[in-house]
Amino acid sequence: MMKNGEGERRQSSQREEHAGSPGTAAGESKTPQPAVTVSDLRVSRGRKEILHGLDLSLEPGTITGLLGPSGCGKTTLMRTIVGVQHYRGHVEVLGQAPGAPSVRGRVGYVTQGQAVYTDLTARQNLRYFASLAGRRARGIQEVLDTVGLSGLAGRRVSTYSGGEANRVSLACALVADPDLLVMDEPTVGLDPVTREELWTTFHALAQRGTTLLVSSHVMDEAFRCDRVLLMREGRLLGATTADELLASTGATTVDAAFLAVITRSTQEGQD
After folding, report:
1. What digits encode the pLDDT tens for the residues 214-232?
2. Which helix (DSSP H) or strand (DSSP E) does residue 202 occupy?
3. pTM: predicted TM-score of the whole model, two decimal places
4. What φ, ψ does residue 160 adopt, rounded to 5°?
5. Which of 60, 131, 177, 199 is deepest in the core (most CB within 10 A)?
6. Of residues 130 and 2, which shows the higher confidence score?
7. Read out DSSP for 37-98?
8. All residues at 6 or more sequence positions from 81 whose CB lies less than 8 Å from its CB, including other chains
């Protein structure tokens, strides 16, 4: 079982290993390499292309929001990053190809559906996923405390509310102590209190060095992210912050700003 301090020291060492150039002198500050780099990413289903030449990067220890309407390609992009989607182009995750054995255990993926065993308790689920993580595994009680499930850990997941079950899925991803955490619509269907608690957890994870990619169709969640990627119909319309988005469009809400970006993109495409 790995103590929290040991996990943080190991994460720091790994981030330094991927930072800077081989010739950097001792004592000099190193510029961390992006946790994820994507260039000219294209994904097709049959003869139909559904992701059209995407370019993006995710900085270490930050929260990036992937915002766009349902069906715009957010899930496909996330599946590509975690290594379960065929693609064309260049994708690098923690310095390796997506899904490479050397990084597979360092990437956590929380899908929209519950990827846990509902006939088991939360604690039993965590024990199972911790056994798969091996030496990387964090303490089970520590993870339960992180997601606020300590008081429910002995109950079967089938008795949980939707929000509580989502926390179990998150906990099962966290027990492997990932350096990159990819979450597909983790707050969908949650009440405001539960949503606030989850975002508090996300920010705590980023502060300890985890890189997070969080998809959502709730535009106001942009204000909770360090950076947002705006996506529509398989294309990235922009990479910005919520404040910059409002300032550049003159809109008063993120929804209105997103519509303005769509209108601008359509007009530019017609020129």
Report:
1. 998 888 899 999 999 999 9
2. helix 192-207
3. 0.84
4. -80, 155
5. 177
6. 130
7. EEEEEEEEETTEEEEEEEEEEE-TT-EEEEE--TTSSHHHHHHHHHT-S--EEEEEETTB-T
8. 36, 38, 91, 93, 98, 107, 180, 182, 213
